[in-house]
Amino acid sequence: MQCGILSVGDVTPDPTSDRTPSEHERIKAMVAIALKAEEVGTDAFATGEHHNPPFVPSSPTTMLGYIAARTEKLILSTATTLTTTNDPVKIAEERTSRCSSTWPAAGWS
Predict the structure, then answer these.
(1) Could you tell me if 75 and 4 are in contact, meaning their C-beta atoms sit under 8 angstroms apart?
(2) pTM for the model
């Protein structure tokens, strides 16, 4: 069995302080969560694609590529892909490029 973390990238107020982080802070926090996930032995990290507030990951493959460059074992995934707003060929190319860089983590050779 594998254990993973899914972040939808929501930018919502902190329930203890009522402070809302900036989009920049939220993206940095998502990256930090992914890096910590690998550090503690979590198997996977996924984020979705959103184009409306209060969500920040409009380009999940860019963020996942950044995370892939800083991790070794973490399986990375796009939790959602909006096929209605993307070119299907571009989706396939982005996933293929990202997947080939993370094949060792997924156990592929």
Answers:
(1) yes
(2) 0.78
Torsion 65-37-24-85 (CA) sign: positive
Q: Read off the amino acid at residue 10.
A: D
Which stretches of 4-87 are DSSP H helices?
23-39, 60-68
User: pLDDT per residue over 1-59, tens digit each?
Assistant: 889 999 988 899 999 999 999 999 999 999 999 999 999 999 999 998 887 888 888 88
Interior/surface letters 69-94, b for 16+ CB within 10 angstroms, e for the rest:
eebeebbbbbbebeeeeeeeeebeeb
Structure tokens at 62: 């860019």
